[in-house]
Design a protein that fits this description.
By secondary structure, this protein is α/β, with parallel strands linked by helices. It folds into two domains: 138 residues, Rossmann fold (3-Layer(aba) Sandwich); 101 residues, Rossmann fold (3-Layer(aba) Sandwich). It is 47% helix and 16% strand. It is built from eleven helices and nine strands. Helix 1 packs across helix 10, helix 1 crosses helix 11 and helix 2 packs across helix 3. It is globular. Bound molecules: D-glutamic acid. The site of D-glutamic acid has 16 residues, from helix 3.
Length: 249
Amino acid sequence: MNNPIGIFDSGIGGVTVLKQILKLLPHENYLYYSDSLHNPYGEKTKEEIFSYVDEMIQFFLEKNCKAIVFACNTATALTISDFRKKYPNLPIIGIEPAYKMAHDFSFLKKTLVMATPATIQSEKFLALFHQYDNQNTILLPCPNLAKWIEKGDTFSISQFLEKNLPKEEKIEVVVLGCTHYPLIQNEIRKVLGNVVFYDGGNGVSRRLKSILEEKKLLSQQSQGMVTFYDSSASLQKEKRFYEFLRKEL
Ligand code: DGL
């Protein structure tokens, strides 16, 4: 069974998830869909995001994908439960901010959660936050940060971090609640010092593996491959995506 796994984000940020999945599942084929035409999702409505994601799912179904990974915290937070109802037979796995992981491994430490405004305001994230709240956490919505990372706008990224990261608070743990943010860990460390990072990529990878095992859908081939699509048909995006993928691996 060599049908691909569909994986998407509002751009190339989901490469940070794919690289973790590849470590665990190197024998699978992947179709990565970068919806850069509609980036950023973090400032869009639930209805808008639903319609973009639905189009990508149609695309994946036409390509016979056996499972779909939401490599986008924002899309997971706002739409995943609706899509699970809409496609009850399709394995759908979604990333979410690794706040439980911070709770399990760094309990009581001063924690900063960075995510898009849409993720931070979502019912799904707030339920997770209240369940694991260590009473020592700052929630930081980061409007447009994913957009600047997507564009490689290093000036706006540094300006945002310098202005908005809470320097006086002695942050020890940072939850990267958007899949674009692991790409700027160095820039975050420049402002906050030597913090510990958590992101949801590992959790998604393990969940994907266990679902494929359970449904007997694991690939038997020796080596898988990654195919890239971009909704704005940008060759530059494709180049950056493969550069990040090679670097990350
Ligand atoms: N990378 C996405 C996330 O994990 C979306 C960022 C955006 O488009 O605003 O939330």
